[in-house]
Amino acid sequence: MANVTTVRKLAAILSADVVGYSRLMERNEVATLAKLKAIRTEIIDPGLKLRHGTVVKTMGDGLLIKLPSIVEAVRNAIEVQEAIHKRNLEVPEIERLIFRVGVNLGDIIVEEGDIYGNGVNIAARLQMLAEPNGVCISDDAYNQVRDKLEQSFSDLGEREVKNIARPIRVWGWQADGAATRAKTKIAATPSAGHEKPSTAVLPSVNMSRDAEQDFLTDGITADILTELSRFNDLFVIPRTTTNPC
After folding, report:
1. pTM to 2 decimal places
2. Which single residue of 29, 104, 212, 243 could bond 123 by disulfide (Cβ 3.0 to 4.6 Å)?
């Protein structure tokens, strides 16, 4: 049996996925895959090549990426979101591919071309917390980039996330955030004079013993939130104000 080389290193990890991917695929598989491929080849891959980033794995609509610099990783995430947002302005809303991105700086295990460890898990959880068109980064990442980027991040406070022992402090940014929030009718809390019915979606729970299914249950929660936000007569509380289990 061949020896497997395991290496530990500090790296920037970027996790991204498409909001409402199942709905888009159900509506038109061929068109959705074509658009996803175009975004990958025209927007994502060129930026990664410039910054020496590597796509470690793809998971349907998801990407797990490793970069050597946290500054370049966050800059890349912002530029990708801005480019996709600009591209979507010419696309009917129901056909848009909208991404969420999480970025973390952490210690990872590199083994046979894949990456593992808490650093990877936190990046995935940050991606789940990001709003559509948004980027969430960890406090470790923020401390490295805050004086090196033109864009400002909002402090979203400490968050408890699944399978991570300690709360993580989260910072968020969103492409054209004000316009997006107004369009989707999402706010942090209802105002005193708010008359619309309100709803919050608690995280789905993985009842199986397979930890890898956590990504599926988290994706279901995100898809439900996205679909509910389309109803103008319903006030949807964003997931950044509800604690995961």
Report:
1. 0.73
2. 104
